[in-house]
Structure formats: C-alpha cells, structure tokens
Amino acid sequence: MNCRSISRLLILVAIFLLPGMIARAQCPTSVLTTDLKAPTKIIFSTSGNLLVAEQGNGPNTGRISMIDVVSGARRTLIDSLPAGFAAPNNDPSGPAGLVMRGRTLYVAIGLGDAVLAGPQPNSFIPNPNPSSPIFSSVLAIHLSAHTESITSGFTLSLADQNTLKSNGRVVLDNGSGDKLQVDLIVDFPDYVPEPRPGLPNAVRQSNPFGVALLGNHLYVADASTNIIRDVNLSTQTFNSLVSFGAIANNRGFGPPFVEPVPDSVHLFGNQLLVTLLTGFPFPVGNASVQLVDIGNGTTSPFISGLSSAIDVLPANGGGFLTLEFSTDMLNPAAVGRLSYYPVPSGSPVVLANCLITPTSMIQDEETNDIYVTEIFTGRVIKVTN
C-alpha cells in the first residue's frame, strides 16, 4: 500500500486510535484553542501570533487562522483556501506547510481532490473537475502590520483562485477597506503518470506538505512523490533537490519496503532537517529525521529509531525536538509523543506522551513553551517546557 494522501492517512489512523488515546491522555499539557478545521501546521508570525494552517472540512474550506498565545482567541486571516476531499476516503486536504519571512507568509497547498480513486486497489486517476485550479501549489500572502490587528478576515473565492491561476496575483478586500495581496509563487503538476497493467491512465498525485525558506529559495516536502523540491523565488521555477528511497518494513507482514513519506522540512544552518513518516504498515523504529545538504542534495541519517515521525525542530538553547504522530500506528493504545534529544545520536527525554494525532509544533523563543497542533481533535496544545 502506497502512502499517497498524508491527511487521509493521519485521519484514518486517528479514527482507529482515538478511543485508546483518550483513555490514556494524561500529562502536563493544556488546551490553548479548540474547534479548528483539521489543523496541520503551526508557526509564529512576525508579530508573535500563532498562525495555523487548516485543511478544512470540504471543498475550498481551507483556512489560515491567527491565535493569541495568551488567550487562545482565534481570528481568521484568510478563508476559503483551496481544499477538497482526498480520494479514496474523502478526507480533507488543503493548506499545509507554512513559513514566514518579514510580512510575507508562504503557504503550501496540498493535493485536495485533484485525483479520484481508480478501479484497481490503491490506484488513482485524474479528476476532470477538481474543486480548485491551484491544488499542489505555493501561495505568498503579503501582510501589513495592520492586517494582524484587524478583526475581519479575508476570503479567497473560486473566482480569485482562477485569477491566480491565470494572472498569478489577486488583491483581496475584506469589505472594511482592508487589502491583502496574494501571489501564486509556483503551481506544481497535480500528478505524474504512474501507469500500471490494465490502467494506463493511473497517476501519483503531488502533495506539498512542508516548506522551509533560505535566501530566495523555498524547499517543499512532497509527501506523495517523496521528494524535496527547490523553488527559486526569483524565477518561480523549481527542480527536485532530493528523492528519498524506500524504507525496510520490519513488521513481519506487508511489503518488504514502504514509502518514506517526507512530511516536514526545517532549516538547520544551511542544511535541511526532514522527517520521514513511513507508509503502511508503519514500521516501528524505522521512521527518522534526515539531514539534507542543500548544496548537493545528499542525505544522511540524523535522528533514528522513531515511529511515525511528523515534525522536528532545533530546540532553543541546543538539541532537537521530535514529534511523533503515534508511537505505534497499529496499536490502539499508542499515543503521540513529543521528545527532546540533547544530541541527535543520544537518548531522548520524553516531554509529552499523551498527544492525540499531533501534526506539527513550534517553540516560543522567550518562554520555551511548545505549541502542538492535533489534526483529529482540532486543537492546539500548549506544552510547558
């Protein structure tokens, strides 16, 4: 079984694991925000608000929310972003990776409903009528200092999405006289051919899921094609920096190898840290963090022995934080885990082992508190560190 839609994979596992997770969900954490729409990535804005990418709950219901770190109050920055029900189980897929520099926010848009379930097991074919023309893309949202303080958010209509597709830029008005410029930085192919016997039109979809920024280059982790793309912001062109190979399956059943599934990417000096989630049946201990050389695309193991790795961060003051969606994706009693590694090859310190379907994290540089998104519960959790 290939891991094609990471949001579908995470939500399916969440439904299976949730009862056991709730039974064991006791640890020193607090809930900052609830009622989010499949939150997937979280970062800090320039002004100190939390920005959360939400995959939505239907066609073109993706959203970027701003959350106050003190009160937990949520406001909409921009709504109606490209989103759709991903095949084959109609789970939400939309805004995912986030990175911000100055007052420009870059948003990776996932696969949405760009493909349909094919007639063969685990096969996919192109959708002739996708909900959005700009799935599998990266948008740039240009904020002003005033934007983060206004109470009325913006909406990106389907007409605006078509304008972005054709012209590359729209300027939104929230009805109160405030403006917001959105640019289409790059529009990746929604899928690549992957013909199989009896199904010549089978495809593998693209699913941008994480993004990092260095200089005038964006680095985009594609969780379906298993590559890191290098996007040149000056020319708005892209190429493949690295392609990750299959990972050994130690489960004792299923295929001998599984897909790597790169799902987050972060800067570490002039290199990249990339988490590999792994595909079904989710080998225990074979997920990892990989170090990628930006100059030549070579990779090397950085943190090993993880299960369902979903995010990694260089920690304040040194060391590294890792986030695992579950310690065993096939065990109903397993939960998500946040750990601290003083050194990559050392033993970890578990900071929280009660998280329910965590998907991303960010650390406050002043307080060291860690904020974690949970896709299935729709929450942001605060871990006091």
Number of domains: 1
- The percentage of residues in β strands lies in over 45%
- The quaternary structure here is single chain
Structural class, please?
A: mainly beta
CATH C-level: Mainly Beta
Short summary of the structure?
The protein has 385 residues and is mainly beta. The chain contains two helices and 34 strands.
How is this structure best described in words?
It contains 2 helices and 34 strands. Helices cover 8% and strands 47% of the residues. With 385 residues, the chain is mostly beta strands. It has a single domain, classed as Neuraminidase (6 Propeller), CATH 2.120.10.30. The radius of gyration is 19 Å and the shape is globular. Strand 28 and strand 29 (320-324) form a beta hairpin. A 5-stranded mixed beta sheet has the order 2-3-4-5-13, with no helix packed on it.
Characteristic terms for this protein:
34 strands; mainly beta; 385 residues; 5-stranded mixed β-sheet; Neuraminidase
What is the element layout, followed by pairings?
Layout: H1 6-24, E1 29-33, E2 39-44, E3 50-54, E4 62-67, E5 74-81, E6 84-86, E7 91-93, E8 95-101, E9 104-109, E10 115-117, E11 124-126, E12 137-142, E13 154-155, H2 158-167, E14 169-173, E15 179-187, E16 191-193, E17 203-205, E18 208-214, E19 217-222, E20 227-232, E21 237-243, E22 247-248, E23 257-258, E24 262-268, E25 271-276, E26 287-293, E27 299-306, E28 309-314, E29 320-324, E30 336-341, E31 349-355, E32 358-363, E33 370-374, E34 379-383
Parallel strand pairs: 5-13
Antiparallel strand pairs: 1-34, 2-3, 3-4, 4-5, 6-7, 8-9, 9-12, 10-11, 12-15, 14-15, 16-17, 18-19, 19-20, 20-21, 22-23, 24-25, 25-26, 26-27, 28-29, 29-30, 30-31, 32-33, 33-34
